[in-house]
Amino acid sequence: MPMAPTFAQTLRRHHLELTRGQTTVLQVNLGLKCNQACRHCHLSAGPGRGEVMDAATVQEVLAYARRGGFSTVDITGGAPEFNPHLELLLDGLRGLACRVILRANLTALLSPPYRGLIPRLAAEQVAITASFPSLSAQQTQAQRGQGIFERSLECMRLLNQAGYGQPGTGLELDLVVNPAGAFQPPEQAPTEKRFHQVLAQRWGIAFNRLYVFANVPLGRFKDWLMASGGYEAYVRRLAEGFNPCALPGVMCRGLVSVAWDGLLYDCDFNQAAGLPLGGQRTHLSQMQGPPPAGQAIAVGEHCFTCTAGAGFT
Amino acid sequence: MSTYYDPQDLPRFAEIGQEAPNLAQKFFDYYGAVFAEGELSAREKSLIALAVAHALQCPYCIDAYTQSCLEKGSNLAEMTEAVHVACALRGGAALVHGVQMRKQAAKVSF
Predict the structure, then answer these.
(1) CB contact under 8 A, B71 and A184
(2) Which end of chain A, N or C, is surrounded by fewer C-beta atoms within 10 Å?
């Protein structure tokens, strides 16, 4: 079979450029330490990873958030709960951004030292975006590890009790579905409807919105694709699904991602791929504000993930 | 060629239209319409197709609808139950012919 065109070639063929719009989201990766080692993780996060953002960098993030006037701060990892300076970050963000999101794996929050975070997060109106890939225990655990399915349900019940996902509280609990293997995700709308029905009927659990994301061929997922001989077919399938109409809505156009060491990237995936912001190694202390509109975004083959089908926003 | 079935043939399915493009177009349009979201969801239709693929024992269809079921959000437990539906129908279809066997045996026996 002929080689698939690169992402950059595909953009040229469609007479397109990938450049920034207005950057309103600051995504903060607090580190790669995690209690899980999910097989689809593009950052290869896990219990053995020691890269964690230190207090000085957290202070620099807060200063950048003030300078940049970002409307949303999106806190991710690894498991951000494992960073000892998470509360310092939350304290500093109070009143600074309209919306603060915490990406949770639903099991770190159950660990005794972190369980107390739930009322704190609720009091601060921090939105929670949680990974819950499947209504099947088998698929969930194949992706995320043994025992994760039941513990995820337990955590969602606790979050519901704290008001998350409940009408009238303003406490958002959104779910993220990633496929449990080398296949594309299901359509978002019917999947969200089915998850609402099944989670409510079987387990009495409520949530707000559901997002489906394709797995990004980087990190541990790429390693698995290479080992199982499926890498080329997976990337080819993403490339064949290239949808030029998805390009204006890709998340990197409005987001800047800061890594645990303070270096900036166009998105979390470019962080995993080692592609710095706009192609130039930049520390957040060098930035006066958000990256300007019109600035070129660094691209690689993994970018096909966000432009396949309906896109990845 | 070492086997009658080659997985690389499935992506070439459209080549069947080269000799009779009008017929192929009608077939593929119909096929697409059948699998669109309707009174049954696209996910349910893929599960039905997976069961039928097993009843027909079409390896192309089994590969295609395994992938399709996963990509429509079905899981292995649901897909396995669909295969059992196919199995029950094929088994039942064999077994119900046993009535014919019994009638024929009765006709020629004391």
Answers:
(1) yes
(2) N
